[in-house]
Amino acid sequence: MAHQRVPSTIDAVKEPHSVSLKVLRYLRLLQFNASLRTDQYPDSLVPPSQSNSPLPPSPSPSPDLIASLAYPSTKPDAFILSPLLTLPPAFGSAYVGETFSCTLCANNEILPGSTPQKTISNVRIEAEMKIPSSATPTSLPLSPPSPSSSSSSSSSDENEKDTGVDLDASKSLQKIVNFDLKEEGSHVLAVTVTYTETTSTSGRIRTFRKLYQFICKGCMVVRTKAGPLPPSPSSSSLRKWALEAQLENCGEDTICLDGVVLETRDGFRSVGLNGEERPVLMPGD
């Protein structure tokens, strides 16, 4: 005789969360001079905007063509936290010595006027970093994203950490996390969001956790060689040494050295003999 299978909790349809999490990583932008000079180009290479005989205006594209484009307009709009800017579960590489910085954004996905009416309160964000040398994740401090929030009193920060914040419909809570990368290997950023979802008849505490993995690599290898210098007849009785340091760019990007400094102990003094102040190292140099 066939028996009816008891439905398990795994088979049940999971209700989507009312709060979503977006993670945006901060990257250092490269600055360059994009200005053009007409005296550096022949007449045939002068940009059309600076030429005496500009090109005729191009015909307007059809509405069907505009609708088929991913970005129909080239006009920069206001900043939107789109999925293209978020941190995927496994993204590129980071390098030892840099500070990993990102924004954690908890968004209330309930639209105004939606039914049934839900209230989102007590929203909290917690972040941890799992490093290769430790089996226990490291708890990361979170900071407010704006100076106005950071100027609040310490008591209000403690209350916010304990009770969380209330989010209206389509509002968000943003926090900034910073972590200094000091070792190579796989790192995992774990973000936990906890909130209270209240309806007209009941209320419940909901939580979810997301993991973001990345590989930390070494971008530079330093090799040193030291040896004593022969004494000079005109010099004093102080002993001298020569230290040669070879820096190799083992990363995938170009590196510009702002400066190389030798930190000496008490009783020692060093003089740099490098000619180029800010050398540029290509990958493999």
UniProtKB/TrEMBL annotation:
InterPro entries documented for this protein: TRAPPC13, TRAPPC13_N
Residue ranges of every copy of the Trafficking protein particle complex subunit 13 N-terminal domain listed in the record: 17-216
Cellular component aspect of the GO annotation: TRAPPIII protein complex
Region (Disordered): 41-64, 133-167
Compositionally biased intervals (Low complexity): 44-53
Coiled coil: none
Protein name as catalogued: Trafficking protein particle complex subunit
Species classification: Eukaryota, Fungi, Dikarya, Ascomycota, Pezizomycotina
Gene name tied to this protein: trappc13
